[in-house]
Write a structure and sequence with these properties.
It is a single chain. The chain has a 7-stranded parallel beta sheet with strand order 1-5-7-8-9-10-11. The protein has a 5-stranded parallel beta sheet with strand order 16-18-19-20-21. The chain folds into 2 domains: 379 residues, TIM Barrel; 338 residues, TIM Barrel. The chain has 28 helices and 21 strands. Bound molecules: glutamine and zinc ion. Glutamine binds next to loops.
C-alpha cells in the first residue's frame, strides 16, 4: 500500500517525501488501522462510576446493578469512539478501581491476605481499599502523572495463573456491539517493574513465569476474535540497564514468536523508549505506539530501519493535557514519519484517562479560552482529522485545519497570556531573591521570636471536613446562603479548631483550612491566569476524582488570598498560628498547565504570587508560614539526565516563594505521598526552616537519608499515620519519637502527624492528637 498526503510537506527530513517513488510502504498485514487512542476514560462524564461504586460499597446497590452501571459507561465510550471515526477502539481500559490491580487479577497476583475472600468483587475491593483486618495494597503515582495505581505485591507465595475473564468479557461485549475492538493489557515488563517485591523476592526475576501466561492470553484473545492487542509498556521510557533492554528483546521475541496470536502493538508513553525502541523494533511485533508529545522524535524512528515494516501508532495528540492540537504541525510530523515506517496510524500520546470527557459539559467556559481546548471527545475528533488528512489529503479536512490554525493564532495573540508587570518584576529579580540568611542565624532569631518549647507540636494544616463545612459549601453553590453567611460559618469552624487545639495543648496552631475545597483549586480561583471547569473531572485513584484548574495565562495575584482567615485565627489565640499556602510546584502539578512556555517560567510566576502572600501574612503579624509541596516528587522527570534541571527550577521556585520574609519568620514546608530517595538533596536545598514529611509508614528512614546529605534544619517526621482511622497510643508515638531522636538532635525535631487531617473524623483526630501531645511532653 502507499500512503500519501497531498498538500503538505514533511516538517523535517528534507524532501524525502513525496518525491522518492520508492516510498511505497509495505505492511506486515493489510489489516492495519489508522485512527485510535491508547485508552478511554472510565469514570463517566458525570462521575457515574464513582457514584455506582460508592453505592455498592455502602450496600445501596448490588453487584448486578454495579455491573449494569459499568456496562452502560463502556457502551457509551466504545460506541462514542467508534462513531467519532476511530477504526480501532481500545477495550479493557475500563476499571472498577485501577488498571494495575486489574492486571494483578489477570495474572493471579493478588496478595495472599485477600485470598480467603470468596466473592471476587469483595476480594478486588479488599485489595484496593483494605477490609476488616486486611491492609490494602500500597498506592503510588503512575509515572509523572497525578493518577495513583495500586502496587501489586510479588512474594514467595505469588503463583501466577491466568484469569482473563475481564478482558475477554469486555472484548466480547465490544464485538457484540460491532466495535473494532483492540484489547489493551499492561505488558509483563511494566507490570513487574511497577510491582513491589515482598519477603526478598525481586519481581523482575519472575519474568520467565509470566511470559507463558501472556502467550496463553494472546492465544485466547486471538480465539476470541482480537486482530490486534495492545500491550502497554510505559516502563520502557525510564532509564533501563543493558540487561533490561536485553530482556525487552527476549520478552517480545518470545511473545511474538507464536503464530497463533493477534498482531501485537507495544505501547510506550510519557517519554521516548530510547534503546528499548531498538530492541522492540528488532522483534517480530507488528506495531509500536510512540509518544511524540513528550519525547519521541521523528529522527529516532527514521534511525531504525526495522520500523519500515511495522505499524507506528503516532501519539501526536496530547493525551494528558487539554490544549487543542496544532493540527498542521502534527501533520508535518506525520508526513516526516511516513517514509520511515511500514504504516502509520494516528493516536493520542497516552490514554484519555488523564483528561476530562468533553468540552460539551462546559457551557460556561469563556468562549475564547474554550476555543483553545480539547478534552477527550475533542481529542478523538482531532485524531480523526489527522488520519483523514493522511489518508485522503488535507483538502478533505481543510475547514478543520483552518479552525485549528485560527485557534492557535487566537491563543498566541491573546492579551491575557502576557502580563508585563509580572514579567518585568521577574526579569528584575536576582540571586538575592532566592536566598535567606544563614540557617543557624535564622534559627537563633526564630527561637527568640517564637519562644517555642523543645519538640514543638503542630499539625499539617487541615482539620476534619465536617458536615457543617460541606453543607455550607453546597448551600453557597446553590445560592441558598450569601457569601457573608458562608464566611461566618467558616469563621465558626476556625474558632472551633482553634479552641480544640488550645485545649489539646498544641504549640503551633493552624486555622484548619475549612474554606478550601482543594489546596490547589482554592488558589487557582483567586489568581489571574487560571480558569476552572464545572465537570472537568479526572480520576485520581479509585473513586476519587479531581478537577484540575486550567493555567492558561500569566499568573497574577491581585489581592491577598489567605490573610483574612489566618489573621482571624490568630486573633483567637496567644499561641502562634501558622499561615498555610500551597507551593508553586504543587500548583503546577495539579493543574493543566499552559504548554506555550517552559514550565520553569510558569513556576516562577506562581512563586511570585505565593511570595507576595507570605510577605502579606508576615506584615499582618503571622510568625510562621507553611508552603506545602506534596507534589515535588511527582514532576520529577522519568529520565535521570533531565532530573537535575527540573530539581533546580523546582527548588528555585520554592525559594523564590519563601525568601521574601524576615529572618525571624519561620518557613515550614510539607512533603508527602512519595519515596523521597531521589530528591533528598532537593529537600535540603529548599532551605525551609522546618520540613514535615510522611514518615510514619516508612519508619523514619527519611531521617537517615536527610542526615546523609547534611540536612541541618528543622524536621517533623510524621509520628503517626493519618491514612488510617486507628488512634495511635501515646506509647506508640513516644516510641516513634525516641527513634527520631536517635537520628536528629532534639533542638531540630518537631512533632506532628504525617499529613493533613481533612479525611479523618473529629473524634479520632482529637484522641490521636491528645496522645501525640502527651508523647511529646513525656519525651521532653
Ligand atoms: N496543608 C495540607 C493539609 O493539611 C497539606 C495536604 C497534603 O499534604 N497533601 O491538608
Ligand atoms: Zn501530606
Amino acid at each position: 500500500m502507499r500512503q500519501r498526503i497531498s498538500g503538505l510537506r514533511p516538517s523535517c527530513g528534507g524532501d524525502q517525501w513525496p518525491s522518492t517513488p520508492e516510498n511505497t510502504v509495505t505492511v506486515t498485514t493489510n489489516e492495519h488501522f489508522t485512527a485510535t487512542v491508547l485508552g478511554l476514560p472510565r469514570i463517566g462524564p458525570r462521575r457515574e462510576l464513582k457514584r455506582a461504586i460508592e453505592s455498592y460499597w455502602a450496600g445501596r446497590i448490588d453487584a448486578a446493578e454495579l455491573e449494569r452501571a459499568g456496562r452502560a459507561l463502556r457502551v457509551d465510550a466504545l460506541t462514542g469512539a467508534q462513531d467519532a471515526g476511530l477504526d480501532s477502539v481500545p477495550v479493557g481500559t475500563f476499571s472498577l478501581y485501577d488498571q494495575m490491580l486489574d492486571t494483578a487479577v489477570l495474572l493471579g497476583a493478588l496478595p495472599p491476605r485477600v485470598a480467603g475472600i470468596a466473592d471476587p468483587l469483595d476480594r478486588y475491593f479488599a485489595a484496593a481499599r483494605g477490609a476488616e483486618g486486611i491492609e490494602p495494597l500500597e498506592m503510588t503515582k503512575w509515572f509523572d502523572t497525578n493518577y495513583h495505581y495500586l502496587v501489586p505485591e510479588i512474594g514467595p507465595d505469588t503463583h501466577f495463573t491466568l484469569d482473563p475473564v475481564k478482558v475477554l468479557g469486555e472484548l466480547r461485549e465490544a464485538r457484540e456491539l460491532g466495535i473494532s475492538a483492540r484489547p489493551v493489557v499492561i505488558g509483563p515488563l511494566t507490570f513487574l517493574a511497577l510491582s513491589k517485591g515482598v519477603d526478598g523476592v525481586a519481581p523482575a526475576d519472575r519474568l520467565s513465569e509470566l511470559v507463558p501466561l501472556y502467550r496463553d492470553l494472546l492465544a485466547r484473545l486471538a480465539d476470541a476474535g482480537a486482530e490486534w492487542v495492545q500491550l502497554d509498556e510505559p516502563a520502557l521510557v525510564r532509564d533501563l540497564s543493558d540487561a533490561e533492554v536485553q530482556s525487552v528483546r527476549a520478552t517480545y521475541d518470545a511473545l511474538s514468536g507464536d503464530t497463533h496470536r493477534p498482531q501485537l502493538l507495544v505501547a510506550t508513553y510519557f517519554g521516548s523508549p530510547g534503546p528499548a525502541l531498538d530492541a522492540l523494533a528488532a522483534t517480530a511485533i507488528e506495531g509500536v505506539a510512540l509518544d511524540f508529545v513528550s519525547g519521541t522524535t521523528v529522527s529516532e524512528v527514521a534511525a531504525l530501519p526495522a520500523l519500515a515494516n511495522k505499524l507506528v501508532v503516532a501519539g501526536l495528540v496530547d493525551g494528558r493535557n487539554i490544549w487543542r492540537t496544532d493540527l498542521e504541525a502534527a501533520l508535518g510530523e506525520a508526513v516526516s514519519l511516513l517514509g520511515s515506517v511500514g504504516a502509520l496510524a494516528v493516536s493520542t500520546s497516552s490514554s484519555l484517562l488523564h483528561v476530562p470527557y468533553s468540552l460539551a459539559a462546559e457551557p460556561d467556559l469563556d468562549p475564547v479560552l474554550r476555543s483553545w481546548l480539547a478534552f477527550g471527545a475533542e481529542k478523538i475528533a482531532e485524531v480523526r482529522i489527522l488520519a483523514t488528512a493522511i489518508g485522503s489529503g488535507t483538502e478533505a479536512v481543510a475547514a478543520e485545519l483552518a479552525a485549528s490554525r485560527a485557534a492557535a493564532e487566537s491563543r498566541r495573540a491573546d492579551a491575557r497570556l502576557r502580563n508585563d508587570t509580572v514579567r518585568a518584576r521577574l526579569a528584575g529579580l536576582d540571586a538575592g531573591h532566592t536566598r535567606r540568611a544563614d540557617a543557624d542565624r535564622r534559627r537563633a532569631l526564630q527561637r527568640e521570636h517564637l519562644q517555642l518549647p523543645l519538640l514543638p507540636t503542630t499539625t499539617i494544616g487541615s482539620y476534619p471536613q465536617t458536615t457543617a463545612i460541606r453543607t455550607a459549601r453546597a448551600a453557597l453553590r446553590a445560592g441558598e446562603i450569601t457569601t457573608a453567611q458562608y464566611e461566618d460559618r467558616m469563621r465558626a469552624e476556625i474558632a472551633d479548631v482553634i479552641a480544640l487545639q488550645e485545649s489539646l495543648g498544641l504549640d503551633v496552631l493552624v486555622h484548619g483550612e475549612p474554606e478550601r475545597n482543594d489546596m490547589v483549586q482554592y488558589f487557582a480561583e483567586q489568581l489571574d491566569g487560571f480558569a476552572a471547569t464545572h465537570n472537568g473531572w479526572v480520576q485520581s485513584y479509585g473513586t476519587r476524582c479531581v478537577r484540575p484548574p486550567i493555567l492558561y495565562g500569566d499568573v497574577v495575584r491581585t489581592a491577598p488570598m489567605t490573610v483574612d482567615w489566618i489573621t482571624y485565627a490568630q486573633s483567637l489565640t496567644d499561641k502562634p498560628v501558622k499561615g498555610m499556602l500551597t507551593g508553586p510546584v504543587t500548583i503546577l502539578a495539579w493543574s493543566f498547565v499552559r504548554d506555550d512556555q517552559p514550565l520553569a517560567d510558569t513556576a516562577r510566576q506562581v512563586a511570585l504570587a505565593i511570595r507576595d502572600e507570605t510577605v502579606d501574612l508576615e506584615a499582618a503579624g503571622i510568625r510562621l508560614v507553611q508552603v506545602d509541596e506534596p507534589a515535588l516528587r511527582e514532576l520529577l522527570p522519568l529520565r535521570r539526565d533531565a532530573q537535575q534541571r527540573y530539581l533546580d527550577w523546582a527548588v528555585g521556585a520554592f525559594r523564590l516563594a519563601t525568601s521574601g520574609v524576615r529572618d525571624d519568620t519561620q518557613i515550614h514546608t510539607h512533603l508527602c505521598y512519595s519515596e523521597f530517595g531521589e530528591i533528598i538533596g532537593a529537600i535540603a536545598a529548599l532551605d525551609a526552616d522546618v520540613t514535615s514529611v510522611e514518615a510514619a509508614r516508612s519508619h523514619m528512614e527519611i531521617l537517615d537519608d536527610l542526615n546523609a546529605v547534611g540536612y541541618a534544619l528543622g524536621i517533623g517526621p510524621g509520628v503517626y499515620d493519618i491514612h488510617s482511622p486507628r488512634v495511635p497510643a501515646a506509647a506508640e508515638i513516644e516510641a516513634a519519637l525516641r527513634e527520631a531522636i536517635e537520628a536528629v538532635p532534639a533542638e531540630r525535631l518537631w512533632v506532628n502527624p504525617d499529613c493533613g487531617l481533612k479525611t479523618r473524623g473529629r473524634a479520632e483526630v482529637e484522641a490521636s492528637l491528645r496522645n501525640m501531645v502527651s508523647a511529646a511532653r513525656s519525651v521532653r
